[in-house]
Amino acid sequence: MQSPVGVYGQVRGFLLNELWRPDLAQLSWLQQLAYKTIRFLFVLVREISQGQLTLRAMSLVYTSLLSMVPLLAVSFSVLKAFGVHNQIEPLLYNLVQPLGEQGNEIVLNVLGFVENMKVGVLGSVGMALLLYTVVSLIQKIEVSFNYVWHAKAARPLSRRFSDYLSVIMVGPVLVFSAMGLTASMLNSNVMQAVISVEPFGSLLLLISKLLPFMLVVLAFTFVYMFVPNTRVKFGSALMGALVGGVLWQGTGLAFAQFAAGSTKYAAIYSGFAILIMFMIWLYLSWLILMIGAQVAFFHQYPERIRLTDKRIPLSGRFREQLALLVMYRVAHVFVHRDMPLTLDKLADQLRVPLDRVGEVVQLLQDRGLLVETASEPPEYLLGHDPATLGMAQLLDTIRTPRGEQALLEGRVASEAPVDEMLGRMDQAVGEALGELTLRDMVTTEAASPAAAA
Q: Is the same domain home to 220 and 365?
């Protein structure tokens, strides 16, 4: 019989070596499914164990505690205008249901704070601070999701207010109106007659029991598609939401048992026990939401499921090649009057990971060669007329360092032979490219994207 150390060594060797060696295309579909599942679980556990997801979940707990009352105050005010504000209390009770009676006490206290915060008497400055607190909460969530999706940047300030506030104002109204409409339909005479007929009655009863889970999945799907500053496919968001929903429901049942048997915490922490349990549940909820987002990311980009998560360093030549390819594609769209390209379309056309294309696009934006539109998702246009942008000038602009790199280059010790060689290389490039412009390269018949592909 093998010792535990020997078994651990074999398992570790399989996970770090044999698991990644086979070419899945040469295996049967059952073997492919097994290898893909184990690889996926390996990288998911790695992402959780590295600590970034847990740290961001902890930070969101702190932000939630600060922003909970302002968020509920804004939502309560909007819902009150539509006459559906009374439905917010049952929803809060469902969210803290795993806490048992302690959760009910928390809801009553929070609702008391919300009622004491009268939005109408805050004034313009108080209302602005209230909205800023609410927007900052969603902005913190976006930053965490952008980390998972390797998004290049957060939304601009103008889009944050327009996007976030539209969801905060309109979202609760639509959700509670849909819930009220569903309840009215179920209580109608027609639906009661349908329920009395089998198997429709049993089917509707099953749907009613699954409805809370379905609402959680729909909410998670919406968050995964809307919050990250990148394009998330519906299928990937739904897959992440299904995993997150199952984890949330299962964790809720387990946490309810834990909360019911945690009388010793009340004896130790007294009145603080309720707050501590509530913070633990908030942390678990945010962590589950982050895990679901990670599942959605790997589902959309299965090529990122690999042994190491270390970024492959780009050589200087490949970075220049990628930058020139991006400029060529955008210029081709401009010259032939096609639809502008988004970051996702550029990544698909170049067959390069989205985050690496994002790095190059950001570099070109910083040098004024590309301009980002305010559309959703953002599209990219040329910052200069391609007929006046020489290829030698374009290459020099890409190579010229900016910011800290320029300061570092200015402090580097200079050697005459090296400087002379670099000067001759630049001169040779300039002579080879001559008067060739970006438009000339695009309009050359042999250099069309179809031919290049």
A: no
